[in-house]
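hey can u run this one w/ 5'-deoxyadenosine bound, need the structure tokens asap thx
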Amino acid sequence: MDFIQFERNEAAAREIEHHYGRAPRLFLHSYGCQQNVNDGEKIRGVLQDIGFVSCSSPEDADLVVFNTCAIREHAEDRVFGNIGALKPIKEQNPGLMIAVCGCMTQQETIVEKFRKSYPYVDIVLGTNAIDEFPQKILEKLGRKKRILTSPVERTDIVEGMPVARGCTFRAWLPIMYGCDNFCSYCIVPYVRGRERSRRSADILAEFKSLIDQGYKDITLLGQNVNSYGKGLDEGLDFSDLLAMLDKVEGDYRIRFMTSHPKDATHKLIDTIAASHHICHHLHLPVQSGSDEVLRRMNRNYTAEKYLDLIRYAKEKIPDLTFSSDIIVGFPDETEEQFEQTLELVRTVRYAQLFTFIYSKRTGTRAAEMPDHVTHKEKTDRMARLLAVQDEITQEIYSAYAGKCVRVLVEGPGREDGVMTGRLDNNMVVEFPCTDASLTGMFELVDVLDAKGAVLKGNLV
Ligand code: 5AD
Ligand code: SF4
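ok here u go:
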């Protein structure tokens, strides 16, 4: 695999200065997962690098960038809706440049749709082409024609891209890109390409620089962090990488996501247990509690194997909290199979659950599977799952009443006079406070009670 060092596009910077005669304004919106949010930070970084400044509405912008998500149909519909809303803005301001990138644009059918039905979209660019953004803008300014790039798979890694981070105390740190798992429902392996791991020295350097800048909460990102290192010849697995980062001195927390259960090991749990900085929280998406559904999802584990790991983790780290993703209504999921999911949820007792109704993604294997489950059945099952989880959430959170917890203060809460903080185990606590200067600091909070998935307490 090739590693490329990012270089500033001097020609684009000069042309932008010449064309606008001032700093042009960028409105950027990222949809979807943390990977995409981090991609958005890089897009902002490379565009700032050639002279753009940020603005907060498309009406004020010279360039609008939508960094899109393709995980479910609903996500794509939202993007199309939001792009449609740009049409009148572009009519008012014909100089406005509109660019669409991210996972949606890695699908040829979608690029075709932009070509035919969205003539006011100027640039279409894939997920893997962030470093090419300045060049595309330069070309667009020069030749006026639309630049619609067909999806290309990228097999290299670009290091050293500027990152305009959205937060001063929480940061995303990708350790790998792409996914090789081909879960039968999932579009990600098609739009993000094959798994590629960053070199550990590059990760460590970025990690240290984040700590030096005062970041307190760093989340390592990958579609399946547990297969980190494949193809690198460094002889390091994900647990080794975690142990290496954990040695860096400082008062900070390490998180990571996402772990695929098929590759999560006892070694990983032992590494968390032995560490100083790794949070006691494991996001381990199970998707379903039925072995038959798991087989058809191509997940490569059984419910029993999953529960074995959970049991081991609970034994080793008693205060570990778990979270998970679950898909309801996978093609032809039976009532019995759904009940096995409910059973598993009751056994694990997740602190938090992310639940999704199955969404058909063209090109995936599940899209070819017959599906006789009605939409009504799917939404009913979803409601039943949420009801089971709500009860568990309430019990887990209520058990924190009376405890004193250490939190990283994240900023103002939903109500006036209230701020929020995050526990090591990812739970969130709200407490009365108006001192914004505490944001990004570790503080102690006495927990009084819980309301849904939020603890309530007072600063010590
Ligand atoms: N339909 C519904 N949910 C999906 N996910 C991925 N693909 C689909 C789909 N086609 C969910 C999975 C995954 C999470 C990020 O999104 O639960 O873990
Ligand atoms: Fe999709 Fe499965 Fe890869 Fe996750 S591991 S991104 S669910 S294919």
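The CA atoms of residues 108 and 207 lie 36 Å apart. anyway lmk if its weird
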